[in-house]
């Protein structure tokens, strides 16, 4: 919105363009218009009006991380939001009559009719095993503090969701067709894979990350009821997604390469899902015959 600038040499009292009922002898250092106390914004020298501050904010260069994300000072908000969602859903699981687990967990039988379960299951956790959510949220808190500031919020959330989807695809491809699975472990392993790739690309020490991956992967074979297939799927795709972020060439096409590559990864996961479901369907027909 534009406001008129008082003509030079006029003897009329200067009024704020935004508030014509307010006289102001303070001028904006940028445009020279009168600006009332409500519209004044502190600047390096003097004050500026609201409009000039907004224009400057739109035209100011955006600080970017080394991987192209927008630099946001402060705490990793996306990480905290994902943790809060998981905790909220966990509390809802305990409310009688809602049947949250049964409505949103994933099993291969739901793939064709309710494919969204491949993502929603990553926000559920077992009611019978409290360490399930405690460990996953602690791991997410640690990994989020390392990855979100480096990648930026958008890339971090995309990495989490693609890894969660890959975990469900891993279950569909590798696990026996059976009971439901739930938990953020597939997405967490995707973050582990991403941290390994980024640390290696930076030239950092990756031995501790490798040890953590091995220990947590081994638990999938030692502790009953853990879907190691989801861990493997998330780990592989999370590492591939991080490689796209880390090795995309800098320049005006970097975002296109990064998110276009993520789109291709999702497309591959969809193709694998459809292929597997067709194979299961054909086996069922043969068995019925």
TrEMBL record:
A Pfam family recorded for this sequence: Rhomboid
Compartments it resides in: Membrane
Keyword Zinc belongs to the record: no
Organism of this sequence: Arthrobacter terrae
Record flagged with keyword Hydrolase: yes
Topology relative to the membrane: Multi-pass membrane protein
CDD domains: Bbox2
Superkingdom in the source lineage: Bacteria
Xref: InterPro entries: Peptidase_S54_rhomboid_dom, Rhomboid-like_sf, Rhomboid_protease_S54
SUPFAM superfamilies: Rhomboid-like
One CC-aspect GO term: membrane
Stated family: Belongs to the peptidase S54 family.
GO molecular function annotations of the record: serine-type endopeptidase activity
Residue ranges of the TM segments: 77-95, 129-147, 154-175, 181-197, 209-226, 256-274
Domain Peptidase S54 rhomboid, residue spans: 113-245
GO terms (BP aspect): proteolysis
The protein's name: Rhomboid family intramembrane serine protease
Upper classification of the organism: Bacteria, Bacillati, Actinomycetota, Actinomycetes, Micrococcales
Keywords from the named record: Hydrolase, Membrane, Protease, Transmembrane, Transmembrane helix
């Amino acid at each position: 919105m534009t406001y008129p600038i008082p003509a030079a040499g006029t003897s009329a009292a200067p009024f704020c363009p935004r508030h014509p009922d307010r006289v102001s002898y303070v001028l904006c250092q940028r445009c020279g218009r009168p600006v009332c106390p409500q519209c004044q914004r502190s600047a390096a020298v003097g004050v500026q009006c609201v409009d000039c501050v907004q224009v400057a904010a739109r035209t100011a260069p955006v600080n970017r991380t080394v991987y192209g994300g927008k630099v946001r000072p402060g705490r990793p908000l996306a990480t905290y939001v994902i943790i809060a969602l998981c905790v909220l859903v966990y509390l809802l699981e305990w409310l009688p009559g809602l049947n949250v687990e049964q409505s949103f967990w994933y099993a291969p039988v739901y793939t064709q009719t309710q494919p969204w379960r491949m993502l929603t299951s990553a926000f559920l956790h077992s009611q019978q095993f409290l360490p399930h959510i405690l460990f996953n949220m602690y791991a997410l808190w640690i990994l989020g503090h390392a990855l979100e500031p480096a990648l930026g919020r958008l890339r971090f959330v995309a990495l989490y969701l693609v890894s969660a989807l890959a975990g469900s695809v891993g279950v569909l491809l590798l696990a026996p067709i059976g009971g439901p699975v739930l938990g953020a472990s597939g997405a967490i392993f995707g973050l582990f894979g991403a941290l390994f790739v980024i640390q290696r690309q930076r030239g950092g020490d990756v031995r501790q990350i490798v040890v953590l991956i091995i220990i947590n992967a081994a638990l999938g074979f030692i502790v009953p009821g853990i879907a190691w297939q989801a861990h493997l799927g998330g780990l592989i795709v999370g590492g591939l997604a991080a490689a796209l972020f880390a090795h995309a060439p800098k320049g005006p096409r970097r975002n296109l390469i990064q998110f276009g590559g993520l789109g291709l990864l999702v497309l591959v996961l969809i193709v694998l899902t459809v292929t597997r479901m067709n194979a299961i369907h054909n086996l069922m027909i043969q068995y019925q015959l």
